[in-house]
Amino acid sequence: MTKPDHDVIAIGAGFAGLGLIHYMREAGLSIRVFDKASDIGGTWTWNRYPGAATDSEGYYYCLTFSKEILQEWKWSQRYPGCEETLRYMHFVADKCDMWPHIALDTEITVTEFREDTGLWLVKTAAGEEFTCKYLVSAMGMISEPVVPHIKGLGDFQGPCFHSARWPHEGLDYAGKRVGLVGAGATAVQMLPVLAQTAAKVTIFQRTPNHVMPAVQKPMTPEWEKEIKDNYESIISKCRNHVFGMAFDSPVGRNLADTPPEEVQKILEEHWPLGSFRFVFETFDDLLTNADSNQAVADFMATKIRQKVKDPAVAELLVPKGYPLFAKRPPLDHGFYEAFNRDNVQLVDIKDCEPIVAITKTGIRTTKNHYDFDIIVLATGFQAYTGAQEALQIRGRNGLLLKDKWQDVSGSIMGVFVADFPNLFMITGPQAPFANLPTSIEQNIMYITDCIKKMQSEGHDLCEPRQDAEDAWVAHTAEIHQQTLMAQGGKVHSWMMGANIENKKPRVLIYFGGANVYYDKLRESVDGGFPEVAFASLAD
């Protein structure tokens, strides 16, 4: 083979990029990580909107390869904000001397597999070219924003931007009239903070969400000691949990088999504890039994009506017609209470007054015109595939990955794609939706094992098998149909790609359980990676 510039090139300097640097160096490989942002951090560099924070508890929303870092780093609270998460990532990069392997402010625009050399050619927007034997997409599952096609979008005379492109130099919204388009996880976090100082915040909602309480709290010395004394157990829990979190799973109890009065008691006990523990540490059948799911949704609806003083507004905020988890449920840091403020207004754009256009001074609906100083588009992302489709990734015979995914975003365990040799993805389509650092690190270890096998056995090419891809696509779809998440398409869930115009919904997530998925990765390693064919250029 022609000697490449780097053994490994990775695109994306978030959790995945940093983790890759560690594991690839340990394997004795050279690696270069490119990112178009001006800082490391991935989603935490781009998403700096007011209130941005993790929805997983910080002490397990982290990389685990260094016991020293786990013991040295100190989280300040249960759910770290974006700035604290960025400081953590800088701490990791500093401590592990990762900066020499990172190139920032470098946008990759084209990647091509060269069949004559077996290498990947990587081109930047500035015209530079690099080669590598192994190409890794570390761009994240929610990194490509979706900007809605609204008439007059460019006409507004004030600041108008997607929430994931919040101005890094800051934006003074105090005393301003803010229009917030969208009511997903970003808006749920942003609204309570904006409302504290803005003159008025008007939120335009298409579909209400099932929002659970976060219950933020500071990290105390006692809690920190308990965590650090038990990190091995915490990591093991994440590895063995259905959503990669440090919870007990399963709890051995189904709502369908529990007397109603006991159900109410259990839900009331867990509600004030906060986090996703409310669903994962109560009952085991909430994602598969429609009646059990509805019982919890009804309980949550009661809580909304108790928090929101205006009954009409409360009813608009109660999800209807779809089950809990068919859309990604956010955590609440005062979202519902914000609607009790005089300076917060809710507009139902699905049934009451759809948006017609953005004007020079605000937003026009079918019934009203709303004047704003700032418009924020909290309209979500093209999940799992958006980042890869935004650049040209060409495999064998010049096949464009975006074209291959036109109808079905298929993969092998979210890592391999047939016709794209030596290309690896971290949390690609049809990987689980789980606590991301846990899934990222499991993927990296799997990719590392595959590359180490190639290196030790002298293979030039890792060729993902189309039959293995077809089997994984079918298996993922079968599992999906067994869960209530299959109803996500009718409520525009990004978990099914149903939020993308002119693109049919598809199965983007493996819902067989993150723990089961991690076991399948290990089985693949132990079996010598039967999903791929190893070859040399001479074959």
Describe the structure.
- The chain is α/β, with parallel strands linked by helices and 539 residues long.
- The chain folds into 2 domains: 293 residues, FAD/NAD(P)-binding domain (3-Layer(bba) Sandwich); 173 residues, no CATH class.
- It contains 17 helices and 20 strands.
- The strands form 5 sheets. Strands 1, 2, 3, 4, 5, 6, 17 and 18 form an 8-stranded mixed beta sheet that branches.
- The protein is globular, with a radius of gyration of 23 Å.
- The mean pLDDT is 95.
In short:
With 539 residues, this protein is of the alpha/beta class. It is built from 17 helices and 20 strands.
The second-level CATH architecture of the largest domain is: 3-Layer(bba) Sandwich
Give the total of domains: 2
| Major pleated sheet | 8 strands, mixed
Structural class: alpha/beta
- Helix amount: 25-40%
End-to-end separation in angstroms reads 13 Å
Query: Taking all residues together, what is the mean pLDDT?
Result: 95
At CATH level 3, the topology of the largest domain is: FAD/NAD(P)-binding domain
Number of strands: 20
Strand fraction equals: 15-25%
Determine Rg (CA atoms, Å).
Answer: 23 Å
Tell me the name of the CATH homologous superfamily of the largest domain: FAD/NAD(P)-binding domain
What characteristic shape results from the CA principal axes?
globular
